[in-house]
Specification:
single chain, alpha/beta, Rossmann fold, six-stranded mixed sheet, four-stranded antiparallel sheet, 10 strands, 19% strand, globular, disordered C terminus, binds adenosine-5'-triphosphate, binds magnesium ion
Length: 344
């Protein structure tokens, strides 16, 4: 079947104007936070977007969740365009595509109970229910995210919960409206290392067992490899490489992907670049004036003159097809091939 959520050639630009110390307003600049990103999310599959800070990961997530409009490009849910804000299709889209944020403290209201947080979307979106039915649904959702005994957790307030438990409440709340897609923006990076795996495994189950389409955003390529079926690598607002998790992490084609892997601890990596030549990553480019050609070329140890003019060619497909999928999102066949490796 086709993708649940398909984004085509999405760009998101921010006009900015800084006020200097002298109080004078600077020139108008346009930050190219995301440029021409295409990505497809499939039922039962986990797609990771990996990139360093400022590469545009959260921006693409906010656009996919339609919390922000794209400057350019198209979003489709089950083949249907999103439609105009306040229209029916748009409302459906907002329900079907749920986002989980990095900071579980900020996303829960301290004055409300866990039950209140989860019951609210049920009341807003679902069919009419009695109080008892609503309560039972809240308990079932708490059980789904392993917050048991559910009766006890339902009565708690956010300050009585650990970070991991709060993130589980956020997940239960997102699940309340029975979404098809969950976009998780660095869902465990603020959590204690010891509880990260539990939350990641819960999210993985929502994809692999419950058939949701999941987008997992992270700056940590090792966790993307462990967790996702396919990996898309983002650099300076663009997707530079993508494909099955195994292929992208074992046989990276783009030099940036190799540097990313080299800067992460992974004993059985291949294709070392930074390690061998001692390069450091250096400064990220100014997105108001992004480099021409391949955006990575000013930092790339393998850059050739042509790189300042053109994006790198689509690399010839290897057996696993990692580089052939660069920039085109996750092709159905490719993602399926990555499934086995991604969960190891
Ligand atoms: P991190 O790993 O730090 O969360 P990220 O990959 O999520 O980074 P984004 O938050 O998407 O990156 O930001 C991408 C670029 O867009 C950055 O240069 C950021 O400063 C810029 N940006 C994001 N939101 C806005 C905004 N509302 N106005 C202006 N610039 C913005
Ligand atoms: Mg971010």
């Amino acid at each position: 079947s086709g993708p649940v959520l398909e984004a085509r050639d999405i760009s998101r630009h921010y006009p900015v104007r800084h006020t200097g110390r002298d109080g004078l307003i600077g020139p108008r600049r346009v930050v190219h936070a995301v440029d021409d990103v295409s990505i497809a999310l499939h039922r039962g599959r986990i797609t990771a977007v990996v990139g360093e800070s400022g590469s545009g990961k959260s921006t693409i997530a906010r656009v996919l969740a339609r919390l922000e409009a794209p400057t350019k490009g198209e979003l489709r849910l089950d083949g249907r365009p999103v439609g105009k804000p306040r229209g029916r299709a748009f409302r459906d889209y907002l329900g079907q595509v749920q986002m989980i944020f990095q900071d579980p403290f900020a996303s829960l209201n301290p004055i409300h109970t866990v039950e209140h947080h989860i019951a609210r979307p049920l009341r807003l979106h679902g069919p009419r229910r009695t109080k008892a039915e609503l309560h039972d649904e809240v308990l079932a959702l708490l059980e789904r995210v392993s917050l048991t005994p559910a009766e006890q957790f339902a009565r708690k307030r956010p300050h009585e919960l650990s970070g991991g438990q709060r993130q589980r409440v956020s997940i239960a709340r997102a699940l309340a409206v029975r979404p098809e897609v969950i976009l998780a923006d660095e869902p465990v990076s603020m959590l204690d290392v010891s509880i990260r795996l539990g939350v990641l495994n819960l999210l993985q189950g929502l994809g692999h067992d419950d058939g949701l389409a999941l987008l997992y955003i992270t700056h940590d390529i090792a966790s993307a490899r462990y967790f996702a079926d396919s990996v898309q690598v983002m650099y300076a607002g663009r997707l530079v490489e993508g494909g099955p998790a195994e292929a992208v992490t074992q046989e990276p084609a783009h030099p940036y992907t190799r540097l990313l892997i080299d800067s992460a601890p992974d004993p059985d990596r291949r294709g070392s670049l930074a390690g061998a030549r001692g390069e450091r990553l250096g400064e990220a480019p100014d997105l108001a004036d992004p480099p021409t050609g391949c955006r990575f070329h000013p930092r790339c140890p393998l850059a050739m003159p042509v790189c300042a003019e053109k994006e790198p060619p689509k690399f010839p497909a290897k057996a696993t097809g990692s580089a052939a999928a660069a920039g085109t999102g996750s092709a159905p066949g490719a993602g399926a091939a990555g499934g086995a490796g991604g969960t190891g």
